[in-house]
Amino acid sequence: MTDTCRECGRKLTAARPDRVSKTGLCVDHANKVKWTPESRAKLAAAVRARHARERADPVKMAAKVASGQRLQRDHGSTPEMVAKQSAGRSRTFWCPEAYRGLNRELKRKQIGLAERKQMIATEMLRDAHRREMAALAAERARRNAMSPFERQEERLRNGASVVTKFTPRRADPSYTLGGVVGAIA
Ligand SMILES: [Zn+2]
Fold first, then answer.
1. Distance between CA atoms of residues 2 and 15, nearest Å
2. pTM for the whole thing?
């Protein structure tokens, strides 16, 4: 056997020096030869046939089930892990946590995704409005419970300045219409 690929002439470096390349091809070319659509189909058919044989064999099947259960027990996910994973992968990422229940309810009623999104968006707006109204009502109730003096005190605390009422001096002619007109003329 040659020590270069017969397709591309690349030097063949064996992982084990005591072995000689059987194909006389580098890995790339060996794979190219090995994996044709036909050889892939052949392998897939062989795997399917093996699985079918195993399924038909009760002893082999029982062994497979037992090994699966062992794997699940020793390396499988806990229900918490599964829940976390499915939450991360959830297709309901668009829906806020608080509305997931409503979404499920609507889904049970066979309402489509687009319509559910619309309905939940409306519900969210409604809830936001409700919260705002409740906050306003609470603020009104709080202020109503205050004495006028307390209310005034709070206004000052919040930065209102004491403004003296503006009272024009009647006697000043420049404040009267006649005075202004007279000044222009
Ligand atoms: Zn090659």
1. 16
2. 0.35
